[in-house]
Amino acid sequence: MNSGRTLQSLADELERQRQTRKDFIAPQEKLRVVADGTRGIVIDGLNGQPLTLTPHAHRQVADHLAIPQKYYERMRSEQPALLAENMNTWLKAAGAEKRMVRTLGGEVRAFMSQKFRPLDNFELAEAVLPKLVELNVQITSCELTETRMYIKGILPDLSDDLPAGAVWGSGHAAVAEYRGNQPGKVVAAIVISNSEVGAGTLRVEPSVFTTWCTNLAIISQAAMRKYHIGRAFEAQEDLSIYRDETREANDKAFWLKVGDVTNAAFDRKIFESAVALIRSAAGNRIISNDLPAVVDAIVEQLALPERAASGILTQLARGGDLTAWGLSSAITALANTTGDYESATELERAGGKVLALDQREWKRISEAVAA
User: If we measure between CA atoms, which residue out of 244, 310, 260 comes closest to residue 135?
Assistant: First the structure.
């Protein structure tokens, strides 16, 4: 599991963002784009504040205006004035149709539907961290990327021995550094994530952590997901979002529910079913002698980047466990060495999906051979 930043660093940054964030509801015809010689593309028309855009916001604007991404980026780097002209033309054509523009520290960070329901990271942390403390959960990793917040933790009080035959990579150098002669444990874990800018849902995902190889596998099947869609928001005279009592009451009720779901993620039955998945996966052997084909099959099945295949194959060979559990562990071991936090988390989620493959899917993957 990647360590990310400290919890104190996360808290400090969330407080800074809470103080500087501002949302607007703006008719598109009122927005004006300017190609600034030093700042690049700048959007004006939000209460007199000319704002630059984050890379994510640029992608959202391109999608919304139906400008192909490659062409958008070429104009942005080579002909910014032409891009500004294109954007102004299509924004004006949209007329009074409104968009939610989320800003932070002088930048547009999101350009999205008026119906997007802000479920912000600060409020999410306020809802879940007291629950995690109450449960004696150890926060092992957290991060704020451009598009998402992550909080990951383990609950040592809810653990079990690794099922027989599930000690992955016992000859692996990384495993040899494990301190003590105790057998590895499976520990209940949780991954909480959210995007304030439309890059995915709010998720509370039960997970398992193995102390033997320090791998985290996210059990997505038991996750709570909340999509950020709601009623359209109206704006005040300065275009900023009006937070009425109804919305505040709805948000309060929702965050209470998220706290309850966080508590329920450590239900013993959920944990025991995850251990059962590991036990079952440890008995599902890879039949094919063509391991590259097996890895290619799982990469395709889970829609992982093709570049991940070589790393998974290396970890699978080093671990030496040619089962579904070994393949899952190879994927999550790769996550531990992946520098990009978002990519590492997707690999941890993929490791959990391997454990949940049905027998038909596993048979196809385990018997894969090159064409």
Answer: 260
Tokens 């999410």 belong to 124
Pairing of strands 202-210, 21-27: unpaired
135-142: Cβ within 8 A, 24+ apart: 135/263, 135/266, 137/190, 137/266, 139/7, 140/1, 140/3, 140/189, 140/209, 141/1, 141/2, 141/3, 141/4, 142/4, 142/5, 142/6, 142/7, 142/10
Residue type, 95: G
Calpha distance 160→25 (Å, rounded): 51
Q: How many angstroms from the chain centroid is the CA of residue 308?
A: 17
- Record the tokens describing residue 328, joined without a space: 């899952």
DSSP code of residue 235? B
For every one of its 371 residues, what pLDDT tens digit does the chain have, with 9 covering 90 and above? 777 899 999 999 999 999 999 999 889 999 999 998 888 999 988 877 789 999 999 999 999 999 999 999 999 999 999 999 999 999 999 998 999 999 998 899 999 998 888 889 999 999 999 999 999 999 999 999 999 999 999 999 998 887 655 554 543 333 333 344 455 788 999 999 999 999 988 999 999 888 766 788 888 766 666 655 555 555 454 555 555 566 677 778 888 888 888 988 898 988 988 888 888 998 999 999 999 999 999 999 999 999 999 999 999 998 888 999 999 999 999 998 888 999 999 999 999 999 999 999 999 999 999 87
Please choose, from the candidates 282, 3, 274, 279, the residue with its C-alpha nearest in 3D space to the C-alpha of residue 169.
282
Burial (CB count <10 Å: 0-12, 13-18, 19+), residue 44: middle
Give the three-state DSSP class for 53: strand
Contact 217, 203 (CB under 8 A): no
- Report the 10 Å Cβ neighbour count for 70: 9
| Short-list 266, 273, 3, CA closest to 136 | 266
Can you name the residues that pair with 24 across neighbouring β-strands? Answer: 101, 240
DSSP classification of residue 222: G
